[in-house]
Structures are given as C-alpha cells and as structure tokens.
Amino acid sequence: MRNAALILFGFTILVFEATTTALVPIHPFTPNLLLPVVIYLGVSQDVELVRGAALSFVLGYLLDSFGGSPMGLHTFVLVAVFLLARGAGFSLFLRGPLFQIGLTFAVGLLAGGTILALRAIFEPRPPFPSGSAWDAFKSLLAPAFITALLAPLVFLAVRSVDSLTARRPSEGTQAP
User: Fold this and answer.
1) Per-residue pLDDT tens for 12-59?
2) Rounded to two decimals, what is the model's pTM?
3) Chain center to CA of 3
4) At what angle do helices 97-122 and 73-88 cross, to 10 degrees?
5) Higher pLDDT, 130 or 58
6) What is the 3-state secondary structure (H, E, C) of the chain?
7) How far apart are alpha carbons 62 and 78 in whole angstroms?
8) How far apart are CA 158 and CA 174, in angstroms?
9) CA distances (Å), origin 103, targets 38, 85, 88, 106, 149
C-alpha cells in the first residue's frame, strides 16, 4: 500500500508539473520534483534498499514517459541518486529545511550534469543545448535552484504520504 501511495504521489507530481509547464512557460526554471522524493527515499531509515531502488526506478520510468526523454535516462539517474543518498547516509538531511535545500541543490546539479553528459555521449546532437558551455551551465543551475527551493515542501508531502500509509501494529499484537 505504501509503495502504491508513493507511486501515485509521484504520478500526481508529474501531472502537476506537466499542467503547469503547459499553462505557464517556465522552461529554464522547470523543477524536477521527483528528485526530492528519491532523495527522501534514500535518506529515510524506514525504506529498505530494494524497495527504494524499485520505487526510484518506477518514478524515473514515469518521468521518462512524461518528459519524452529517451527511455531509461531519468530512470538510471534517479536510481543512481537513490543509491548515492543511501550510500552517503545523510542523516542530518532530514533535520531541517536548510539541509534539504542545500543537498537537493547539489544533487540537482549532479543529476542535471549526468543527464547532460549521457545525452552528449548517446545522442548525435551537440552536448550543449544552445551551443555554449555558459548556456548549458544556466540550464543546469536554474532547475536545480527551483527544485531545491521547493524541496522542503516535497519532503513534507512525502513524509505525510508515507506516514499515512505506514503499517501500525494492531492493538492485540506486540511490535518486534
């Protein structure tokens, strides 16, 4: 039930993003709101490795489907972000919004750079969207900045969704 709720939440985020970008042209500042969800899964003590990787895979696949990206691009990057967050063990990350904003910004830059590098390697187009390194840097900086600013709200929402669907021990049984 928890997995389905998180996938439904990710789907809702993608629908919201697609609707917003269709109504308001915010291209250079388009956030990736699934990135904080995956970071939350990576730093949460309640999420097992296999569950988090599988959820990150499904959310990345949904993002690839919604965004029209080559299949597997965001899937790979979101699973890598989950594993990076899990391996680094940022336990302080959940402590406050400043840590959430800072880490999400850093991971957003890293994820955007990875996507740009993978596109440069596997696609025949030039690696920089507008032809210069400065334009490519701006295209990495703006989404990472907006995603980082929205990260505390996304974390709060994911925490709420995850806690609403968490299994609670029955009154007649003892918790291990």
Assistant:
1) 999 998 898 888 888 778 899 999 999 999 988 888 999 999 999 999
2) 0.84
3) 15
4) 140
5) 58
6) CHHHHHHHHHHHHHHHHHHHHHHCCCHHHCCCCHHHHHHHHHHCCCCCHHHHHHHHHHHHHHHHHHHCCCCCHHHHHHHHHHHHHHHHCCHHHHHCHHHHHHHHHHHHHHHHHHHHHHHHHHCCCCCCCCCCHHHHHHHHHHHHHHHHHHHHHHHHHHHHHHHHCCCCCCCCCCCC
7) 11
8) 27
9) 12, 10, 11, 5, 11
Q: Is the dihedral of CA 138, 144, 147, 151 positive or negative?
A: negative
Structure tokens belonging to residue 11: 């789907």
